[in-house]
Amino acid sequence: MGFAIGTQKEKMQEHTIRGHYQKVAVGCWFTATGRSIPQKLKYEDEDGVRHVVDNIQVIKSDQKHYAGILAQRYDCSAIIHGINREFTLLYHPGENTWDMILDNV
Fold it and tell me: How many other CB atoms sit within 10 Å of the CB of residue 92?
């Protein structure tokens, strides 16, 4: 009779998020326990104009694996161009980069 010790669960693979991907710079606050909370972001539009989005509200966050690559996903809302919008922020720890994903409107 044999016993398996330390068997690893398969990591759940997520489907790619649909929408418009935009590379962004994010200012984050870290709690004393190490939890990260995005506070503001900056991005450049097609015309080269830089925009700042303040007062990001994080609705939920969790770690996901997309094509086997770890990412921290934040479902958020904020005022963007005068409209309250929901969007997703993805932090890629291996590359130290951020993506903002907006629904195609």
Answer: 14
- Sheet strands side by side (includes 57-66): 13-14, 57-66, 69-80, 83-92, 97-102, 20-30, 36-44, 50-53
Q: Which two tokens stand for residue 105?
A: 């409107």
pLDDT digits (tens, 9 = 90+) for 71-104: 999 999 999 989 999 999 999 999 999 999 998 6
Q: Give the pLDDT band of residue 14 (cuts 50, 70, 90).
A: low
Give percent of the chain with pLDDT exceeding 90.
72
